[in-house]
Amino acid sequence: MRQRSLIAVTAALAAGALTLTACGSRGEKTNDAGSGDTTVVIGVDAPLTGDLSALGLGIKNSADLAAKTANEKKYVKGVTFKIQALDDQAQASSGQQNATKLVADKDVLGVVGPLNSSVSESMQKVFDDAKLAQISPANTSPSLSQGPKWATGEKVRTYKSYFRTATTDAIQGPFAAQYLFNKAGKKKVFLIDDKKTYGAGLAGTFKGEFTKLGGQVVGEGHIDPESKDFSAIVTEVKSSGADVVYYGGEYPAAGPLSKQIKASGTKIPLVGGDGIYDKKYVELAGAESAGDLATSVGAPVESLPSAKDFVANYTKAGYKEPFAAYGGYSYDSAWAIIEAVKAAVDANNGKLPADARAKVLAAVQGVSFDGVTGKVSFDEFGDATNKQLTVYKVEGTEWKSVESGTLAG
Questions:
Q1: What's 42's DSSP letter?
Q2: Which DSSP symbol is given to 181?
Q3: N or C: which terminus of the chain has fewer CB atoms within 10 Å of its end residue's CB?
Q4: Which residues, in sequence order, are CB contacts of 148 under 8 Å at separation 6+?
Q5: Which residues, including other chains, have CB under 8 Å from residue 112's CB and lie 6 or more apart?
Q6: 378: nearest Cα among 329, 323, 307, 306
Q7: What is the pLDDT of residue 36?
Q8: CB-based contacts of 348, cutoff 8 Å, min separation 6
Q9: What is the number of H-type helices and E-type strands within the chain?
């Protein structure tokens, strides 16, 4: 990777010269071993407890690894990076409180997160008012960067402090539709969503492309993801004649929904987006989830030559939790902040400028580097320029990649 190969870190790990440990509990600043006298804090906001913690802890740990790598390499002369990770419990109200807390800490010059698009909606203005850069590794709702009327072609960037390393549902939903219709031969879909920002938006973009291709929507419905009893909509699915269910939402509800659909005798696959792409989904859905599908952002991290060092160092660091779906994107989000801090310091004669937040924010817009997930840079809306996606299928107890690519047309 350009200017930041982890080979040196790998060698140091092998020699026992570098010890990496997972970052601390909620709100704890970590990374005490540093490279300089000036402390720069990178905030992390994610669900560290609750149903989605498998994804959130991967986000936290991966950002932590980026900060520790920068310190070990002395990547920004005179600067020590630390992580402050806050738990939003996948709740918008908690996210807003966390945003306020991070803004109040003058040492915080950038934030990685959150996981959920609905949580991000509550945080964006807080960060933007403070000129504090926010980079999400996981948000996929197009409205966050392109405004509420993006689907009509009226795209407006509301918050210049907002960026993301994941691609959007404007691409992910249609990508899934194209795969199901053209490659999997599915022509009749039953659409279900959880009525949240992410789920409803994803289902909407899928529907638009699927019907455009000639597919038929034979039923639509919504569920309360807190319920876990989906018998009413399962009955509708069973009588609809659908050959596939597309679900807009996350794995805590998607897993039980798939299990209940199969238990009703309806042996059709459930398909969803990156919100269901986690091993927890397979555990919740059970053995009959074999054949269920998910799309997720980017190529499989384990398959990318650029990610080999990340995977090796994450393992050697001894984190208790896997890096999960967004690990590589979280590392790259944190590294984009690190690159921006470096640019601000280099432009100020080797010292952090007085208006560091504004300078770092301006620098984020122009970052460009070879990251864990490939080329990392941002377009005029703050969206990732990397638009690759992957289809995964449940095989046994694991997700296996089926096809990677970009949206056709």
A1: E
A2: I
A3: C
A4: none
A5: 42, 43, 44, 45, 59, 63, 135, 136, 137, 330, 333, 334, 337
A6: 329
A7: 55
A8: 359
A9: 13, 15
pLDDT, one tens digit per residue, over 228-267 is 899 999 999 999 999 999 999 999 999 999 999 999 999 9
Give the residue carrying structure tokens 């393992």: 315
What confidence score (pLDDT) does residue 179 get? Answer: 98
pLDDT, averaged per 10 consecutive residues of the chain (409 residues), comes to 35 34 40 65 98 97 98 96 98 98 98 98 98 98 96 96 97 98 98 97 97 98 95 98 98 98 98 97 97 95 90 96 96 98 97 97 98 96 96 97 92
Q: Token pair 């056709």 is at which residue?
A: 408
Report residue 150 as tokens: 């993006």
**DSSP state string for 365-388:** HT--EEETTEEE-B-TTS-BS---
Find residue 247's DSSP bridge partners. 192, 272
The one-letter amino acid at 335:
W
* 346: its two tokens: 């280099």
As a whole number of angstroms, the distance between CA 4 and CA 69 comes to 9
Q: Tell me the pTM.
A: 0.88
| Closest alpha carbon to 190 in 163, 167, 222 | 222
Token pair belonging to 360: 């770092």
Residues shown for the chain: 409
